Amino acid sequence: MKSLFNALPLLLLSALLFTAAQGACTLSCTEKTVCYSNLSDAAECWNNIPTNNDWKNNTLDVITQSLENFGFQALYHETGPPYNLKVPVMEELNGAKDMTFDNDFEFQEHLQTILTSLLDAHTRYSKPACYSATLVMPVAFDFRLTESVTNSGAVQSEPVPYFIPSIYYDEYSEQNGGVDAALFNQPVLLINGVEVSTAIDAWGTTHETRSNNAGARFNAAIRSFLYRSVVSCLVGDAGDSLTMTMQDGTEIVLEWTVAYTSAFGQASECVKKQKTTEDVDEEMLPNRQRILLNEGLGEAVVTHAELHENRPDRKVVISPEDAEYEISCFVQSTKGDAGSSEAGVDDVLVMKVSSFSPNGTGYLDAWDGFTTDAATCLDENYDMIVVDVMQNGGGYVCMGLRLLEMLIEDYWNDHTKVEMKYDLPHSTLMNGWIANVNNPDPYIDPDAVEQILNPESQEPFVDGKAYYYPGRNVTMGGVKSWRTNWFCLNCKEAEVLPNGWAPKKFMPKEKLIILSDGTCGSTCASFTRIAQEANKATFIGAGGLWKEEMDVASFAGGFVCQPLYLATMAAQAGLSTFPQFITNQYWQFGWAAWYSQIQPSRPVQFIEQGPDHRLGFWQFPHASVNSSVTTSATSALYDEVIADSISRISVEAEAKNCNNKNGVYIGFISFLSVALCGLAGFVVYEQVRRRQDEGGGVDSPYAVLGK
């Protein structure tokens, strides 16, 4: 297909480069390396990229025209509870067209401020490549649970923040002449005069887009607060430094260090070649919905040696280093552990699903690899499953649904039970696409991704008009708008993978544990929400704001789209050319909306559903933290999840067994026995539940009874 908008006209490109070249940056860095600077010099670089009205107006045109297809545009006029957001995004963007800015960075920050206020990781904007830098600190947060005894004698747990060295400790020390040892081995009380949790929460509310839920957002902000990517985050208000007040009263000022790459501060890097309509690839497909949770200079990793070294109770099936298709797993023996006999749990399968976006030669190859690895894990012998989806940013929708089918018997037997109801907003572009192309799917290449189905007939729509018209006149946020008829995704290609495989067994709800930190998003949100709304699994939440509600998933809205995709649709339909960026920023938005089963008129993204149990864990892997530290903490978390789950199951089994035994007797003695048995079971269960809610586990259900 011939592109309607190939390279920029040379005259325009030359003019842009000439204008951009007026601001020089004194920092330089060789390609494929990371260099370091103080914040003052770095700020000179980003402030020296001058205002360019062509860049500004083009950027705003692309985003505002894209947002005519935004799935939640009407709803954001007033989302209602639980989040109560009011974001007049189109009005704010149109207002920016008439504003003047001192430099391009000021414009970029203003634009990001508007879009960050949506608190939607699907609808996010990243600055161009000339801002490729990250503000870093020599420390990272390490929240630790501490116990105290109340006046009534009750034991209460509370997270207390400490510092540990970050991976930038050595570079920072070299840049700044060392790091004060008083930062370590004692709690940090205040940051810039504000309590630590309050400071992180407040910053996350205005800077961290990973979740509209405060608890999940806090988990992300714990890391991004001290690791601020200039490309993906607002940094203009960072200040020169942070003042840390320690428990002993010591105040320590830490200035920001900036890690940057060769592109940073070079205006010419902002106008490097963009992809055209001929370059749409699988990363841009609407149903490959995901985000990279640790944007910046690196990714979080889990190391095999730290996770399983000196653990004879663990059988490694797929190690993290060998997880080519994003799944690793091991089987942990619990035979002989407290409560394991009563719970009927001798072996536990722990599966880490890092992403639902496996690599492969085409999507079917990726799908086959993902499901084959999942089957390899599920072919092991086990009595309980723990699925870790912490920090999973999503991927192929059908992979999330297929894994649910492989785990849950009802879904294995009836695939329609995992289907999700979607719709799309009507728009000028979509009206033209339907009129002139009329594909039965809203895709430029229906063979490249999951097609859509009529949920009533379970068959493809005959053409585009069949799902687009008559449509539905819907009121969201107090605003009426037209949306398509309901549709669902066709995952039939995934439903046969891996070929010839069938599960050996399925786990009941209490023995299928899904572990989430709340940032499990996009397709990962589909994976968690479907099982949660149907009460098919037990959900354990890690971290969050202590004693406050936390969601198990984030950015659960449908699937995403990008300007290049819309431009290709416009070109195929013979419509007016859809604008494309002349600079190389990244922008995507939520396109389709997905609706809840328990509140059918409500998009899932705006429903809060907390976990069944909570654990006090905040040592999340991150690019700024030594992987051996966070891997060891994650390993201990798995032990706690397993022990606490066995405790709960054994208590319930003991109480049930007790009731069954005493049910055959009659009279006062049996009545008293049943009462005492029930009371004992209740006491133990409440102790387990309370420790779970407070972040700790009970080593044995008998510890409370004194057995």
Q: What does this 3D model show about the protein?
A:
InterPro entries: ClpP/crotonase-like_dom_sf, S41A_metabolite_peptidase. Keywords: Membrane, Signal, Transmembrane, Transmembrane helix. With 707 residues, the protein is an alpha+beta fold. Helices cover 32% and strands 18% of the residues. It contains 20 helices and 28 strands. The strands form nine sheets. A seven-stranded mixed β-sheet has the order 13-14-15-16-23-24-28, with helices on both faces. Strand 20 (472-476) and strand 21 (479-483) form a beta hairpin. The longest helix is centred in the last third of the chain and has 36 residues, at 627-662. It is globular. Mean pLDDT is 86; it is low at 1-23, 288-297, 664-676 and 687-707.
End-to-end distance: 75 Å
Number of helices: 20
The beta-strand count equals: 28
- Mean pLDDT across the residues is 86
Q: Radius of gyration, rounded?
A: 27 Å
* Rough outline: globular
Instruction: Give the biggest beta sheet.
Output: 7 strands, mixed
Helical content (DSSP H or I, runs of 4+): 25-40%
Order of the strands making up the biggest sheet: 13-14-15-16-23-24-28
State the secondary-structure class: alpha+beta
Uncertain stretches: 1-23, 288-297, 664-676, 687-707
Strand content: 15-25%
